[in-house]
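Design job #97: recover the sequence.
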């Protein structure tokens, strides 16, 4: 019985770790997209000038 609880605790800890890593990846993707948008706006304003 104790082994089952130990496995559940490990599984729950792993799920929390995966969730946090997923959130970090999403934040990195959003940050990169925003940086690319800023670069694009700068490039367009340079080309149009």
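Job complete. Output follows.
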């Amino acid at each position: 019985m104790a082994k089952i609880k130990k496995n559940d605790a490990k599984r729950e800890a792993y799920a929390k770790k995966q969730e946090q890593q997923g959130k970090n990846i999403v934040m990195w993707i959003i940050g990169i997209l925003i940086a690319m948008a800023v670069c694009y706006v700068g490039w367009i304003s340079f080309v149009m000038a």
